[in-house]
Design goal:
Blueprint (H helix, E strand, L loop, with lengths): L1 H18 L1 H14 L5 E2 L2 E5 H26 L2 H16 L8 H25 L3 H28 L3 H10 L7 H4 L1 E2 L3 E2 L8 H21 L4 H17 L3 H17 L6 H20 L4 H11 L4 H7 L6 H14 L12 H9 L11 H9 L2 H17 L9 H16 L4 H19 L10
Antiparallel strand pairs: 1-2, 3-4
Helix pairs in contact: 1-2, 1-3, 2-3, 2-5, 2-6, 3-5, 4-5, 4-18, 5-20, 6-10, 6-20, 9-10, 9-11, 9-19, 9-20, 11-13, 11-19, 15-17, 17-18, 18-19, 18-20
């Protein structure tokens, strides 16, 4: 039955993409949010379901108009930046102190397929206001469905939907077993439609800044966006991950600071009153004790004694410091080029955990381990180009694109680079929205 459903989704994506490429991109976004990434392609179990969707859209776009797509992409600055990043990784890899060159090249190809190609597709297929509207509406409603189910799963204290896919695929990650549902200090958590709570937390942190920006533009249904934002904020506490709480906390503080000149005293009082009521409820209601512990340890993330007392798990401040400094010792024999792309994943596959760096839980450790001191430069250029692309016009009192970037940086410093395609597609959405708001849409409502 499941295989029939998956084949139906694939067939629908093929037809939708041939009708209009943006419909195919919308199918991918919906599937990526609502279908756990562990699902494989029926008959081609070596290929994930998400990867198959990406390849279908790529082939359909090329069939529809290779020449036009090529011309449009080569003129796009973000496309050039993404290609430069991948090519740099490929060129530098032979100079690195690698352990398994084939594994690392395979990891690079996988990153290209799962995280870079979706962003490139967004650049290629979002040509008109209608294309953008389809993509955004799909993103919004898929998020709402995911978050509603996450709340239901939290109340049920189990996740039958995700557990079903884990069972039929034989997926098991021993490093996450305790964190998915029952950790001693965190209590019950939820992962929504994602494979684990970590991934759900990444998604929440990347989505909130984008939806706040869309709310500001006033081009879409504000009620729908508000519902999506409200559900995301609720789930940021229910997923019981400290990094999303910290990153969104930074976002909210900066957002309120940048909007200080447009807010009156009464509005500030309403916001602070609402926040006070929520915090009071969390600190008074016994059933919310685990959420209270997460909030306390998130706000005082440098206090290892508090972390140990609350027993909520996660990395200590001492470990965070080691994650920044120890990678330079690890690559001391090849400090310029490091150990190669995907080396951290290779190491974890071989030994499960590193004796000092554990799971390489920050971009500051993975960047140096994989690329040496060049790693900081490479990731700086990647995220700088993402920000520059997302804000083609410098105007307005609140720089929402900068807020999205800062939120992303806080997140990856705390957890590492995961689900980059969500951030990249968000950058493309902001770019297209800015252009359509300030320039006449010269394209007609037609396929490529």
């Amino acid at each position: 039955m499941l295989n029939i459903l998956l084949f139906a989704i694939l067939a629908f994506t093929v037809v939708a993409t041939l009708i209009r490429p943006s419909y195919g991109l919308a199918c991918f976004i919906s599937a990526r949010i609502l279908i756990p990434e562990v699902v494989r392609t029926p008959g081609f179990e070596g290929l994930s379901f998400n990867s198959t969707l990406i390849l279908i859209i790529v082939i359909s776009v090329l069939v529809n108009g290779l020449a036009k797509t090529y011309v449009r992409l080569v003129k796009d600055s973000y496309f050039k930046a993404l290609v430069f990043f991948i090519c740099s990784c490929a060129v530098l890899l032979p100079f690195s102190d690698y352990e398994d060159l084939q594994f690392q090249y395979n990891s690079l190809i996988q990153f290209l397929l799962t995280d870079i190609l979706p962003v490139i597709l967004a650049i290629a297929v979002v040509r008109t206001k209608w294309d953008l509207k389809i993509v955004i509406q799909t993103f919004l409603w898929s998020t709402i469905l995911c978050c509603v189910y996450a709340i239901i799963a939290y109340l049920m204290q189990k996740n039958p939907y995700v557990n079903y896919f884990q069972t039929i695929t034989g997926w098991r990650d021993t490093s996450l077993v305790k964190e998915v549902w029952y950790t001693t200090g965190r209590g019950v958590s939820t992962s929504g439609t994602f494979l684990h709570a970590n991934g759900f937390g990444y998604f929440i942190s990347m989505s909130i800044p984008l939806f706040v920006y869309l709310q500001y533009t006033g081009q879409y249904n504000k009620r729908t966006i508000f519902i999506a934002l409200a559900l995301l904020i609720v789930n940021i506490f229910l997923c019981k991950k400290r990094s999303p709480i910290v990153s969104i906390g930074v976002f909210l503080i900066l957002w309120m600071y940048l909007k200080r000149k447009t807010w009156n005293v009464l509005l500030y009082m309403k916001v602070f009153l609402l926040g006070a009521v929520v915090l009071l409820a969390v600190f008074i209601i016994p059933a919310l004790e685990s959420i209270r512990s997460m909030i306390e340890t998130s706000f005082f993330f440098w206090d290892d004694k508090l972390l140990a007392a609350k027993d909520v798990g996660g990395s200590s401040w001492e470990l965070r410091i080691l994650q920044v400094t120890y990678p330079f010792i690890k690559v001391k024999d090849n400090i310029l080029f490091g150990k190669g792309f995907g080396w951290c994943s290779w190491y974890l596959n071989q030994y499960e955990l590193h004796p000092v760096l554990f799971g390489f839980e920050t971009i500051l450790s993975t960047a140096v381990c994989q690329f040496g001191i060049l790693g900081y430069l490479m990731y700086y250029m990647l995220f700088y180009q993402s920000y520059k692309y997302s804000r083609p016009y410098k105007y307005g009192k609140v720089n929402y694109q900068l807020l999205a970037l800062v939120t992303m940086i806080v997140l990856i410093v705390a957890t590492g680079l995961n689900y980059f395609f969500f951030f990249g597609i968000g950058s493309v959405i902001m770019n297209k929205q800015e252009i359509f708001m300030h320039e006449k849409d010269i394209h007609s409502y037609s396929v490529l």
